[in-house]
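Internal tracking record. Fields below are filled automatically when a chain is submitted to the structure queue. Please do not edit lines marked as system-generated. If the sequence contains nonstandard residues, flag them in the REMARKS field before resubmitting.
Queue: standard
Priority: normal
Entity type: single polypeptide chain
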Amino acid sequence: MRSLRGKTLFVTGGSRGIGLAIALRAAQDGANVVVAAKTAEPHPKLPGTIYTAAQEIEAAGGQALPCVVDIRFEDQVQAAVDAAVARFGGIDILVNNASAIQLTDTLSTDMKRYDLMHSINTRGTFLCSKLCIPHLLKAENPHILNLSPPLNMEERWFAPHVAYTMAKFGMSMCVLGMAGEFRDAGVGVNALWPRTTIATAAVRNLLGGDDMCNHSRTPEIMGDAAWAILTRPSKSCTGNFFIDEDVLREEGVEDLDAYAVQPGVALQEDFFV
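SYSTEM-GENERATED OUTPUT FOLLOWS
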């Protein structure tokens, strides 16, 4: 029986959206989840906090440890890692989900936002991995899962928003390098990316509002796909760039329409977000 029962997941950006969906799916198995995110107080445009996420995780059957973490800062990440180990005895899985987005062209991208995207997406992923790996090396089936795209070096992915693409590809390059570096140690390092837009706060607030969300799938498709990856043997599952619907088809899931926000409405596919 494949299960995440008793496993401890360290999920960055786990207070809402895709991160929370992954956490809730793990919680259904009885997993422990460290919610490592910045939102401690309610935000007018963003649903949920680390504390409401923790309540949902525990209601779903898991145990939760909410930690206020800005992954740009090493001391905050280290404190959360230490708290996770103290509470749950170790860390089995790291989900690098936290990300900053701004889909602007070169002349419209200010350097403050450029630095933010690279500090969170690329540097934050590297930092969280670096601090969690010593504990993953002690785990029975250790995984790192980055929410980042396949390394497709085509102009169309870069030209519209080169700064953002570089920052997300930095996460994917961590997959490529760390999979090779830690393969012999048995740590599975993979990436997961959606085929279509996912109905998250970022899509609603920054990209296309409710109309875009209506042409999207729900975060649960990413939660189910992540579960399928994270329950596989880490020694034989590493260095992959998975697409959510492909993973689920491998698992025998046929009714992908169940994940549509509005079944029957055309999905926004092949979109780099």
